[in-house]
Request: fold
Amino acid sequence: MTAPPRRPPPVLTDDNEGFWTAARDGRLVVQRCRGCGARHHPPRPMCPECHSVDLGWEEAAGTGVVYSYALLHHPTHPAFEYPVVAALVDLDEGVRLVTNVVGVDPHEVAIGMPVEVAFEPTADGFAVPVFGRRGGG
Ligand code: ZN
Reply:
């Protein structure tokens, strides 16, 4: 019997490495400008508000709400169960993530649903932040 395939690993760049290494360690972080305090996601080399390149990482609470979502049926990859819930989640910190909602019947996912972060392992020892219904269930 072979192990089930895992999610593909993230592709690291100079900009996103801090996000993915934190996720690997089970932490959700958001990029924050040390110049003006603005938070942004996805990570980028320069603050879009004040153009500072002095950027750091701030731990997020890991809670938010579903802003929007779609149920993906195709194309399939053996690491995923279908339909995949591709979601936009608004974190309490004010940034929006492209992610997956997991552990919930896909047809029960709703806009505005409170969610909290979890981490799913990927190939190569990384992990990806995903979201489940807040409070479990
Ligand atoms: Zn800034």
